[in-house]
Specification:
The structure is a homodimer of 365-residue chains. Chain A is α+β, with helices and mostly antiparallel strands. Chain A has helices at residues 2-15, 25-32, 62-66, 83-93, 110-119, 129-137, 141-163, 171-184, 246-265, 272-285, and strands at residues 17-22, 44-47, 54-58, 73-77, 100-103, 124-127, 195-198, 219-224, 227-228, 231-232, 235-241, 297-299, 306-310, 323-326, 329-332, 336-339, 342-347, 350-353, 363-364. Chain A has two domains: 2-136, Creatinase/prolidase N-terminal domain (Creatine Amidinohydrolase, Chain A, domain 1, 3-Layer(aba) Sandwich); 138-364, Creatinase/methionine aminopeptidase superfamily (Creatine Amidinohydrolase).
Chain lengths: 365, 365
């Protein structure tokens, strides 16, 4: 873990920055293994090119921070104290003058950036997000182990959902059963709101599960993820209830071919946009091009949506150590939607699929 | 709903701002009833002093936005399109020059503020958060109705938790049972991660539920909230398992007296810090002052933590229409912790408690 902070320090030296202010709780966890969800309260990890880092967090969380992998100074503040006075005092003790401050522009609220400029009038900002994303992009053994477990939990969860299918049951009821059984087995954190979409609802890629009841001939789409040791999985499977129409069968087969073709094409050095193209070609050739309305997938890790974005316009290439989703989808209004999503780890020896729930079309009776 | 947008427009006129850029999905929902969680995608509600507002959201969400209460122009963009070009084009068509732009500094990422300054080089920012907070602070009838239902759901949830208590059961298992039963009854969104803390864990006000098993003599603390129609409840109750020690009884009685004294003191025009003082005095007089380590409570609404902050240093006064929590707590290391939290609506006729689960100490057998 300190290893990752070392890389930040090295970058700060090369970049000529005075310090980095890491405020995103996910990045703080990534660098320290200190898990803290401070809500509107202040959390800040300050890293320096040549000096020891320090962490400021609510007093209630200090003990947890001290027992994390961080190992450097932890400063707590109470609800009736202004954390910025602690920031100022500690930074001043390090004799910091104006200069470049490395921040996370995509998540750091404008107000906090402004507070920094109040401390250091002539401060300028530089983004450290590229470095953090590229570090987080390449998973180490610990991370891979967690993501394998998260993938297995996702497989298990889809199985629970399929077992819960019954005529008349609502989408929400199935979600409740999945999450109850998961929690009983110690998986109490989902990566995002579990989606179970049935019938015409399955044609809305970002639909909201509701009280629609399962009917014969429905597609039933499960999209869910489980968090293990902080790391997310993300799986989608689609099944049919009682029978399948010719249209549905063709949509399903096309989507599965696209999923398989893309996984098959994964290799180091491949342009990411071309991977999207591989899946999209299968779907377009079958005449469903206009119904594949989103990118092929996204990176996965501590966040359920990370870099790289697996989209047509991404000119970056696949690198060993990446974990990402491959999730082609076909959404035909009034007929229904199919999406088949796997999590892929790109090892030095080729793609390793982390999600294993069967993909041949199941017709549930 | 448009009524709330009218108030923003009026404020923009008085404030001399060119437009407001509302990016926080919760505020977008507040103003339009369009529920959208865009993750890292772009969402923006643009409101003008004299012109029609418009909304930019992912194409996938356009239908939902159109069927909301918004009623003005909705612009969708695909994943392969840059939403900022739509922002620029639409703003240009309104012939906007440089000037003051109203933003939400606490939540707007620095990067998005920067993007605005790239569109309008001489733009300056002003905060619209004070207005939004003060609007959201005062609940209308629709909001109160939702919060009453959310309070009832919270009462029901605590009952489920108390019913699930059994020797040897873990904190996580009880949470799973609560949320499963809630979901079966249509309550599938919690306001925050449900907390069940037992024994010495109950002494950590921000503890994480785990696999500790219930033992005789434990305090069992439930802190949970349910979301209904977007609005949150937030309740805490503490019970004992099998028997209660003299120390525990005294801690409980003191905490309950503090809760009741504060609720009794609620009235329009009262300085909020003094309400914290009322509860704190009860606890301090009983000798537990140093164990009440947090503020008395917080505002409640679409967010689980809103203004006003019910803290000692808050000089603002209570106003009819506010909903807030009253949640004194006493956390004695090695003995255990008690917190008793209610949601209070301040009507013109005095405080109305929205949470009704009984507060006399229950000893569960």
């Amino acid at each position: 873990m300190p290893d990752k902070i070392n890389k930040i320090e090295e970058w700060l030296r090369n970049n000529g920055s005075r310090f980095a202010y890491i405020a995103d709780p996910v990045n703080v966890f990534y660098l320290t293994h200190f898990k803290c969800d401070p809500h509107e309260r202040f959390l800040g990890l300050f890293i320096f090119p040549e000096d020891e880092p320090f962490l400021i967090c609510p007093e209630l969380e200090v003990r947890q921070a001290m027992s994390s992998d961080f190992g450097s100074e932890v400063i707590g503040y109470r609800d009736d104290q202004d954390p910025w006075t602690f920031v100022k005092k500690t930074l001043d003790s390090r004799k910091l003058n104006d200069g470049k401050i490395a921040i996370e522009p995509s998540t750091l609220p404008y107000k906090k950036a402004l507070a920094l400029t109040h401390l250091y009038e002539h401060a300028s900002f530089t983004s450290i997000e590229g470095l953090l994303a590229s570090l987080r992009n390449i998973k180490d053994e610990f991370e891979l182990a967690a993501m394998k477990k998260a993938g297995e939990a996702a497989d298990y969860a889809v199985g629970l959902g399929v077992d819960a299918i019954k005529k008349g049951k609502t989408e929400k009821a199935i979600i409740a059963e999945i999450e109850y059984e998961l929690a009983k087995h110690g998986f109490s954190e989902m990566a995002f709101d579990t989606m179970v979409l049935t019938g015409e609802n399955s044609a809305a890629p970002h639909g909201y599960p509701g009280t629609r009841q399962i009917k014969e001939g429905d597609f039933i789409l499960f999209d869910l993820g489980v968090v293990v040791d902080g790391y997310c999985s993300d799986i989608t499977r689609t099944v049919c209830y009682k029978y399948v129409s010719e249209d549905q069968q063709k949509i399903y087969d096309t989507c599965l071919q696209a999923n398989l073709a893309a996984i098959h094409a994964v290799r180091e050095g491949l342009r990411i946009g071309d991977l999207d193209g591989t899946a999209r070609k299968v779907i377009t050739d079958a005449g469903y091009g206009k119904y594949f309305t989103h990118r092929l997938g996204h990176g996965l890790g501590l966040g359920e949506h990370e870099e790289p974005s697996m989209s047509a316009d991404n000119d970056h290439t696949l690198t060993a150590g990446m974990v990402f989703t491959i999730e082609p989808g076909i959404y035909v209004p009034d007929v229904g939607g199919v999406r088949i999503e796997d999590d892929i780890y790109l090892s030095k020896d080729g793609p390793v699929t982390l999600t294993h729930y069967p993909k041949e079309l199941q017709i549930i009776h």
